């Protein structure tokens, strides 16, 4: 089983950048498909980005602004978020998908002021 811990959230202004980190422990990160979701209170959790077998995927609203990556040496996944917009405000969750199921982190708050 893998444990996930996100960090890097915060309060920024529109146009700023943030990099979220998802540190994994218990298993090698390459055993999993890694991804990021986000959730706004009162709304369903929304898939944002994923990476698997070296390929990256993004929801349309973040294409060209967000970049997902993994550091195999440190078993950490990242979400680089540039040109942030107020509508990006949410709690961001890291997910690891593997043969034994999906595992979630506790989330990190990102707030973008206009």
Structural class: mainly beta
Poorly predicted runs: none
Give helix and strand order, one letter per element, not per position. EEEEEEEEEEE
Number of strands: 11
State which percent range the strand residues make up. over 45%
Written account of the structure:
This protein is mainly beta. About 0% of the residues lie in helices and about 60% in strands. The protein is built from no helices and eleven strands. It has strands at about 5, 10-15, 20-25, 35-40, 45-50, 55-60, 65-70, 75-80, 90-100, 100-105, 110-114. The strands form two sheets. Strands 2, 4, 5, 6, 9, 10 and 11 form a seven-stranded mixed sheet that branches. It has a four-stranded antiparallel sheet with strand order 1-3-8-7, with no helix packed on it. The radius of gyration is 13 Å and the shape is globular. The relative contact order is 0.33. The model has no long low-confidence stretch (mean pLDDT about 95).
List the helices and strands and how they pair.
Layout: E1 3-7, E2 10-13, E3 18-25, E4 33-39, E5 46-52, E6 55-58, E7 66-71, E8 76-81, E9 90-98, E10 101-104, E11 108-113
Parallel strand pairs: 2-11
Antiparallel strand pairs: 1-3, 3-8, 4-5, 4-9, 5-6, 7-8, 9-10, 9-11
